[in-house]
């Protein structure tokens, strides 16, 4: 009672003093204005983006309003945009563009020829393992035939209609069950198939956001994730209006700092994210510790195993030790894993799994009052490709447990071999401990992008990383073919030695841009440049058109000068 008096008596006196002699309308007005100001202030402070970030952005925006600065930026952007388009044309090797529907349908063989010439465009020999990640297995003839047959059988089916296509729904249910079993889910575990890792992640974020809103009343959702978490989480945060609290790494292990993660948890936290393993460094966060945090603060934990999921769940059987990462840890509430990566299914499939149906319920989107009927759909799409589901299902059965274990053993053996050899080389270092198939390298002595450039001129394509500058190789089944890893190690050795002879030189061309773009403080400009890059991916010339000639063959009329000069 004393404490209450201690505070309330002076407060009472101050308020009475303030309103002394005021008329009732004045008191009501002042009270309303005070409340509105407090609410405005609260809304201003607590937004998805932190206040520091917003102040920085508006300052930079103001600078960009200065006419001289704006003109300079616009002309640079125009220039870049043109060079992106030129790159797009270069990439398609002057193959003519089709910009409108042909008047009549085209002959089947003609179409197949066009598809072939499109599919095999590009400078990298991905079939023979020159590319990091990207192509996870160069499908053997049997598997390819199987997938082709299965897809063509199922291409018209659509799981949106369980009454009409019960079989394809059963296949989806079985893929999900198989995955639950691989990740040690119990009878309550469940999930859905999606079209890829990004959608799986988006769905998990939606489920936890809505779960937190409905069960805990959280209306300003935040998620806590390592800075290494895949950018799909940022995408989900942007789509779903979730604030991201990014947590830094331990400098030695390149896994998330657990103490910092704990500090980032607030009463608005809807989920904790960790990766098994992450994309940039291939390291795995201490999922056991994070799962404990989840339990302690009653926050669901999502394990992103999109990349490594279908390796890591076979690693024990393949004779490697891995820390616990799946539903065996009580705090782990959901897992995303891509069947179209190390599951070797054709592109367009992934699974998102939950410990319990109560989470999956919040993934579903339901509209009860639509004029078209009650509409419930599990994922982003309405209609979904039954063919992809069937092809994924068939691929899982084609390999079987033993097939995946063998394949995992090969991929991990090859990765460990490459890692071992890289650690022996002077001038470069490996980030943390790669758990599955990704090895990231950096250098304290030279600009690592020069190594990219050198390897590129030998036909290798590695992934560049930033903050700090680094490269990684994601080893896939394609790299386990005889000689591929040896060749890679050999080329690395030579290139590193060459660069070390002259370590202070800088990277050139595109590689210099990678390096210097990190030092642009105004990230919105980097963002803008990226938008122009994406525009260029959708580039088609303005005037070109197609006609169907006499023999039902496609003929191109090109009026684009750049293209014409190349075609001649
Ligand atoms: C590939 C990947 C994703 C996203 O998957 P997509 O299939 O490309 O949408 C998410 N997380 C990690 C770690 C990945 O490697
Ligand atoms: C496109 O190719 C031409 C000729 O091969 C080359 O000179 C030019 O620099 C390339 N442009 C870009 C943007 O890569
Ligand atoms: C479904 O949605 C995804 C995005 O999540 C998209 O990539 C895909 O093409 C869509 N369509 C079908 C039929 O799956």
TrEMBL record:
Enzyme Commission no: 4.1.2.27
Protein topology in the membrane: Single-pass membrane protein
UniProt pathway annotation: Lipid metabolism; sphingolipid metabolism; Sphingolipid metabolism
InterPro entries documented for this protein: GrpII_AminoAcid_Decarb, PyrdxlP-dep_de-COase, PyrdxlP-dep_Trfase, PyrdxlP-dep_Trfase_major, PyrdxlP-dep_Trfase_small
GO molecular function per UniProt: pyridoxal phosphate binding; sphinganine-1-phosphate aldolase activity
Coiled-coil regions listed in the entry: none
Domain of life: Eukaryota
A Pfam family that the UniProt record links to this protein: Pyridoxal_deC
Primary subcellular site in the record, as a coarse category: endoplasmic reticulum
Protein name (database record): sphinganine-1-phosphate aldolase
Subcellular location: Endoplasmic reticulum membrane
Cofactor dependency: pyridoxal 5'-phosphate
Membrane-crossing residue ranges in chain numbering: none
């Amino acid at each position: 009672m004393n404490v209450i008096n201690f505070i309330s008596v002076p407060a009472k006196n101050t308020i009475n003093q303030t309103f002394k002699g005021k008329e009732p309308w004045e008191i009501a007005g002042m009270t309303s204005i005070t409340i509105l100001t407090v609410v405005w202030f609260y809304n201003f402070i607590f937004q998805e983006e932190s206040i520091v970030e917003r102040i920085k952005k508006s300052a930079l925006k103001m600078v960009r309003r200065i006419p001289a600065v704006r003109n300079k930026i616009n002309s640079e952007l125009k220039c870049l945009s043109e060079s992106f388009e030129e790159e797009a044309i270069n990439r398609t090797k002057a193959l003519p563009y089709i910009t409108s529907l042909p008047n009549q349908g085209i002959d089947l063989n003609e179409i197949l020829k066009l598809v072939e010439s499109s599919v095999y465009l590009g400078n990298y020999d991905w079939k023979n393992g020159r590319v990091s990640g990207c192509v996870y297995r160069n499908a053997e003839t049997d598997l390819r035939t199987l997938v082709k047959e299965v897809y063509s059988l199922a291409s018209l089916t659509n799981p949106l209609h369980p009454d009409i296509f019960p079989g394809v729904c059963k296949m989806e249910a079985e893929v999900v069950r198989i995955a639950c079993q691989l990740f040690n889910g119990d009878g309550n575990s469940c999930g859905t198939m999606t079209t890829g890792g990004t959608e799986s992640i988006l769905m998990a974020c939606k489920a936890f956001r809505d779960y937190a809103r409905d069960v805990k009343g959280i209306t300003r959702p935040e998620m806590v994730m390592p800075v290494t978490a895949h950018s799909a989480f940022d995408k989900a945060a942007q789509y779903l209006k979730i604030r991201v609290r990014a947590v830094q790494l331990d400098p030695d292990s390149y896994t998330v700092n657990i103490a910092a993660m704990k500090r980032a948890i607030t009463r608005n936290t809807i989920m904790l994210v960790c990766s098994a393993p992450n994309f940039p460094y291939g390291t795995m966060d201490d999922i056991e510790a994070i799962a404990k945090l989840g339990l302690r603060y009653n926050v669901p934990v999502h394990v992103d195993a999109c990349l490594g999921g279908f390796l890591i769940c076979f690693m024990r059987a393949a004779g490697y030790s891995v820390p616990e990462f799946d539903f065996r840890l009580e705090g782990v509430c959901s897992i995303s894993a891509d069947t179209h990566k190390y599951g070797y299914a054709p592109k367009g499939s992934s699974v998102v799994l939950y410990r319990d149906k109560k989470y999956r319920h919040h993934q579903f989107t339901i509209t009860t009052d639509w004029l078209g009927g009650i509409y419930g759909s599990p994922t982003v799409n309405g209609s979904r490709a039954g063919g992809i589901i069937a092809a994924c299902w068939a691929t899982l059965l084609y390999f079987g447990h033993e097939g995946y274990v063998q394949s995992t053993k090969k991929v991990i053996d090859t990765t460990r071999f490459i890692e071992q050899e890289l650690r022996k080389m002077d001038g470069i270092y490996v980030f943390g401990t790669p758990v599955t198939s990704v090895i990231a390298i950096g250098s304290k002595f030279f600009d690592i992008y020069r190594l990219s450039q050198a390897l590129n001129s030998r036909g290798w394509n590695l992934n560049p990383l930033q903050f700090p500058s680094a490269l990684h190789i994601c080893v896939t089944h394609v790299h386990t073919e005889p000689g591929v890893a040896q060749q890679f190690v050999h080329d690395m050795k030579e290139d590193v030695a060459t660069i070390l002879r002259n370590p202070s030189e800088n990277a050139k061309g595109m590689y210099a841009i990678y390096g210097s773009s990190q030092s642009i403080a105004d990230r919105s400009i980097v963002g803008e440049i990226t938008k122009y890059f994406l525009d260029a991916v959708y580039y088609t010339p303005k005037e070109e058109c197609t006609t169907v000639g006499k023999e039902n063959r496609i003929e191109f009329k090109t009026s684009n000068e750049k293209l014409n000069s190349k075609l001649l």
